[in-house]
Amino acid sequence: MKRTIEAICTGTARPFNGAETSAIIKRPRERIVQILEDGLAPDEQADRRVHGGPEMALHLYPLDHHAFWREQIGPIDLLDEPGAFGSNLAVSDLSEDDVHIGDRFKLGGALIEISQPRQPCWKIEHRFSSVCEAKGMVAKIIKTARCGWYFRVLEIGDAQAGDMLERVETGHSDWTVARTFNALIAGKADSDELKELAALPRLAPKLRSKALAKLG
Predict the structure, then answer these.
(1) Which of 8, 29, 72, 147 is 20 to 30 Å from 188 at the Cα level?
(2) 166: helix, coil or strand?
(3) Average pLDDT, integer, range 3-29
(4) Average pLDDT, the chain
(5) Radius of gyration, alpha carbons of the chain
(6) Nearest to 134 by CA among 75, 51, 63, 60
(7) Phi, psi angles (nearest 5°) of residue 194
C-alpha cells in the first residue's frame, strides 16, 4: 500500500474559545519537515495531557472524509483545508477500515506505526460551529467511526509533501482502526474483545488500560 502525502501540516497554540488555547489549526508546510519522537518539528499541542507525546506523535484524518462532511454541513471553506480536523498528514484513498493498529509505514526517511484511533473532543465541535451552524459533529464521528488515527515514531527522519506513505508491515490484522474505535470509544466491545484489546501489544498503553478497566 502506497499513498501520496498531499500535505504535511503543523500549527502553534493560539487563543481558542475564550481563555482556552489550541493548536488544532494546522497549516501546510512547503519544505522538508523533521519527524521526531514527539512529532513534527515545529508543531505544538496546547494541552499535553490529552494531545501529543510519543503515542500521539502524528495525526492523520482521511481527506476523503471531507466530502462526507460537505454533505452534512455544507461546502464551507474550512473543509478545503487539509488540516481542518487538526491533522498533520493529508492523504486520500485511505480510511479507518484500510489500516490496523500496529501497521508500520515509511514516511520519507521516518518509520511510523499506528498506535490508536483519535478520540474526538469538543475542539472539533467548536472549530466548525464557529464558522457555520454545524452541531453534533462529535456524535457523528462516534456513530460513523470517521475518527482518524495517531502514529508513534519508531525511527526519526525527514519528509515533505509529495513523499509516499508506504505500508511496510501489517500490525494486528484483526483490529482495524475502525473496529478498535467502535470497540473502545463507541463502547461496543464485548468482554472477549476487551480482553484481546487489553493485551494488544501495539495498542497505545492508555487504551489497553481503558480496555482493562472496562472489564471491571
Answers:
(1) 72
(2) strand
(3) 81
(4) 91
(5) 16
(6) 75
(7) -65, -40
